[in-house]
Amino acid sequence: MGHARFDRVVLDYQNRRRSADGSLVVRGRFARTGIQTYLNDDGSERIEYRPPDEVKSSASTFEGVAVTDCHPSTMVDSATWSSLARGHVQGITITDGPDEESWLEGDFHIKDGILIDRIERGERPELSAGYFCDEDDKPGEYKGTAYHCAQRGIVGNHVASIPGGTARAGREARLLLDSAGNQLPPEGGKETPKMDEQEAKLVALTLERDQLKARTDALTGEVDQLKAKLAEANDPKRIDAAVKARFDLVDRARRLGGDDMDVTGSDNDVRVRALNAVGVKVDGRSDAYVEARMDAEIEKLDSESGHTVADAIDSTPHVQPPETDWLQPVWDARERLLADQHGEED
Fold first, then answer.
1. Cα(194)–Cα(173) distance, rounded to whole angstroms?
2. Torsions phi, psi of 239, nearest 5?
3. What pTM value is reported for the model?
4. Segment 188-199, tens digit of pLDDT
5. CB neighbours of 24 closer than 8 A, spacing ≥ 6?
6. Burial 303-312 (b: 16+ CB within 10 A, else e)
7. I need a surface site. Which of 24, 60, 159, 274 has the fewest CB within 10 A?
């Protein structure tokens, strides 16, 4: 993927708006052309040139990248997006900046409430783009400034919201707050000094603290929900209602299947056994269908005879039900079965 780089951006805050979900949406410039200065591991400076054609060709790679709260310790990818992203950038175009350089410009959609508050309080007045690039080690000169190498194959990764005074591009890399394009003034009306190592650690620790607090708040919410569910489950009225409903189900099931019918298991198990007892097969049907079918069989039983299947089977052969009895086919089948058995014995 090449070398990782972090560059500062300008967030044009004059046309900010809030979306329906409360997100902060604002247009901003970033990834400018020209000279960029980086520090080597030994503390020496490395001057790199970013050509206009490379910036232009990188525009599509910044489409949809994450907005983060300060630079994360690792680049953003699919495994870390959910924990690092606080929004995204979209609608990338190329524009001319006030520094006579070309910039990429896009809409910043900041979704995280904590980061939105920090930006509006002036705690994150600057932004910094994180990206990968390849180094063309051929040295050269740009506008009178010598550089060590040029950046090629730029691929965007994220854009970080950062504290004031840390933007490499100077005051151009600050938030613009009103329609006149005035920039957010630094604290005390003076330029904020560049963030040192201790301040950087403090920013990182503050971010970690806020992330842990967000997770704690989420877990607290889950615990409260579980407590509410437990309280509902132990509610005496709810328990009494559940016991009564089960008693009524058993009573209805035994009206269909007889007093010795097995009534263990779930409500649906009991209903299926009761329906099987009257010859109604409901295997593979939904619980709602089984419940409705049992209600229909009970209604039929109440309206037509008042007899159960068990009544018919246990009755003696010479006892005949009324002509209108809906169980007449059962009686007839039993008589034929008994006649066949007597015939085999003779």
1. 13
2. -65, -45
3. 0.48
4. 333 333 444 555
5. 16, 17, 18, 87, 108, 109, 110, 116, 119, 120
6. eebebbbbeb
7. 60
* 158-183 pLDDT per residue, tens: 988 888 755 443 333 333 222 222 22
From CA 102, how far away is CA 51, in angstroms rounded?
Answer: 10
Backbone CA torsion sign across 245, 251, 255, 259: positive
Are β-strands 140-142 and 3-18 bridged in parallel, bridged antiparallel, or unpaired?
unpaired
The residue assigned the tokens 């924990």 is 83
Dump strand ranges (E) for 51-203: 66-69, 87-96, 102-110, 126-136, 140-142, 145-147, 149-162
DSSP letter, residue 192: P
Are residues 71 and 162 in contact, defined by beta-carbon separation less than 8 angstroms?
yes
Q: Which two tokens stand for residue 247?
A: 């008693």
- Going from the C-alpha of 237 to that of each of 23, 225, 232, the distances in angstroms are 44, 20, 9
Please give the structure tokens belonging to residue 4. 């990782």
State percent of the chain over pLDDT 70: 70
Mark residue 294 as left, alpha or beta (left: phi above 0; alpha: psi -120 to 50; beta: remaining): alpha
Residue written as token pair 């201790």? 198
DSSP code of residue 265:
S
